[in-house]
Amino acid sequence: MTRDLSIVLIEDEPAIARNLEYIIREIRPAARIIKVLPNIKESLRWFSASEEVYDLIFSDIRLSDGLSFEIFRKIPLKKPVIFVTAYNDYAIDAFRNNGIDYVLKPFDKEEIHRSLTKYEFFLLPVQKKSPGSGLCCGSCNPLSKFIKNPFSSITAAG
């Protein structure tokens, strides 16, 4: 039995953070949002001190105190990130900082669903196939025999 998906949100706009959390829980009811971080300063403090286990990060890029890439440059987080931003000019930086998807605001449920499905298909080692989910066990992903944990050796460029 696998544990539920644990997610950290980095978002400085409370209404957007609540909306994203609502959509994630609607799509994946078992998912847990373990922390919502509103800025770089609090993110650096939390990631440096927390021993909480998490699987995935959803992150805005432009925060009240700078660009979220600063977090990933200062702390070598080895977790995938789905960037959710109003700006389309940061995609290259996003993918250089463990980005697995880039969602433009305003987002909708379908876009977040697509991002979560992408994460699950490519990064979860074993999936139980459920009718209509489009997901299967890791062995039916043609890349699974080559990729154990693609983020285990990636560090942010800095």
From TrEMBL:
Q: Which Pfam families match?
A: Response_reg (PF00072)
GO-annotated biological processes:
regulation of DNA-templated transcription
Protein known as: Response regulator
Q: Which UniProt keywords apply?
A: DNA-binding, Phosphoprotein
GO cellular component terms, semicolon-separated: cytosol; protein-DNA complex
Q: Specify the species.
A: Chryseobacterium endophyticum
Q: Does the keyword Nucleus apply?
A: no
User: From which domain of life does this come?
Assistant: Bacteria
Molecular function per GO: phosphorelay response regulator activity; transcription cis-regulatory region binding
- The Response regulatory domain sits at 6-120
Question: At what positions is 4-aspartylphosphate found?
Answer: D60
